[in-house]
Amino acid sequence: MATPTPHTAPAGLRERKKQRTRDALIRAALELFTEQGYETTTIDEIAEAVDVSQRTYFRYFANKEDVAFAVQETVEARFLEALAARPAAEAPLTALRSAVTVAWDDIGDAIESVIPVELYMRSFRMIESTPALIAAHLRRSSEMEEQIARLIARREGLDMDTDPRPRVLVAAFGGVMRVAGQVWGEGQECSVASIRELTKSYLDHIGPAMEDDWRAR
Amino acid sequence: MATPTPHTAPAGLRERKKQRTRDALIRAALELFTEQGYETTTIDEIAEAVDVSQRTYFRYFANKEDVAFAVQETVEARFLEALAARPAAEAPLTALRSAVTVAWDDIGDAIESVIPVELYMRSFRMIESTPALIAAHLRRSSEMEEQIARLIARREGLDMDTDPRPRVLVAAFGGVMRVAGQVWGEGQECSVASIRELTKSYLDHIGPAMEDDWRAR
DNA sequence: GAGGCTAATGTCAGCCGCTGACAATTGACA
DNA sequence: TGTCAATTGTCAGCGGCTGACATTAGCCTC
């Protein structure tokens, strides 16, 4: 049995060329977005920077927003893999926490193969300060949470349609992840290690946050 | 001292006319959106139905999405008022729960003064099945949650920048509210009372959902 | 109640995101 | 090398959205 999902480089010249165009579009778009702003950047500019037609851009990305989340997509895929690999004995929240911790190690390389981490971080900030991208980000996150909740429900042998607990837990988890991302984006330390540690410590607050009387202690 | 916020009818003819145009645009838009779909409806159609120019539409609403959330806006305002009025002695989650319960009673009338509740419900379903509107809905919700978290933090005398608990609790609260809205939209019972009860019972799950071992029941 | 003021509206031109259709180019494979 | 299929470019066009300017219509004063 080989690796669950290879993450390998493609074979043919045609395929490699496509990959290069795609990566170039991502780099150019993020560079332009972070430098002059998302709204003021046009698709024509992105396409021109990579020397392809506007129509070609839309053959790689369905819309203007998508290119901003292309890297995030791989990050999320890695996390889902890591979560699915957690032992069934772990409690739900523990499994989520462990999966995040484990996944971040692989993720760094996956990001760096397309863009420098520093650009990834800048685009993070850009997303959080652009209303249209915030909306897209949240929608993506909620789809992600739906998948995660399904996974958790299956682990625990629960029916998501009648038991709201998977969704509720995952909603809290997702919220914490989002906040962690924001704080990381605003900070100075742009290493992958720093966001991993930030996430871990924030996740430790999920339990205590639900107590009734916060003023006691 | 008068009522905290009047919700009264405006005075001048000019003002009343504006209000009527606005309401007519909302009604026409929701009717068209729910009947033939959001994407396939054009602003020109909405404007024509109310017999105004397309440009006028954009003087009332900043974009195509906004008109779909016009009613929701009043709903949210009522909730915030209700929350601010809760006694300081209540625990955070209790205050949220009580505010929701109290607010729904006023909200029914506020909705009905613009559109029939049945249309409100249909538009709810429409929003949840339209990707672009889901994104907008989530962004609005997250802004709402930010406000709520701020309110909660102030009640408890906490600093939101250092203490993540307000955000985490409100994230869970917001998630549950969203799920309750979805379930209500998909159901048959389109009364305001039904969504109020649904919300109440769902909120009761927030505490238990955070336990470590769900299989211990 | 006539006239001036200002807010609301209509009209027009134009940018940009996005799509379908068709032609031109280029890698793949016999 | 020649055929086939995939990728790309070009073009036309729709719909969301905006600025600019002219027109209309409520408001307020004398």
Automatic annotation (TrEMBL), chains A, B:
The keyword DNA-binding applies. Keywords: DNA-binding, Transcription, Transcription regulation. Residues 42-61 bind DNA. The keyword Transcription applies. Residues 19-79 form the HTH tetR-type domain. Pfam families: TetR_C_14, TetR_N. PROSITE patterns: HTH_TETR_2. Gene3D superfamilies: Homeodomain-like (1.10.10.60), Tetracycline Repressor, domain 2 (1.10.357.10). GO terms for molecular function: DNA-binding transcription factor activity; transcription cis-regulatory region binding. InterPro entries: Homeodomain-like_sf (IPR009057), HTH-type_TetR-like_transc_reg (IPR050109), HTH_TetR (IPR001647), MftR_C (IPR041347). Coiled coil: none annotated. SUPFAM superfamilies: Homeodomain-like. This is Putative TetR family transcriptional regulator. The lineage of its organism: Bacteria, Bacillati, Actinomycetota, Actinomycetes, Kitasatosporales.
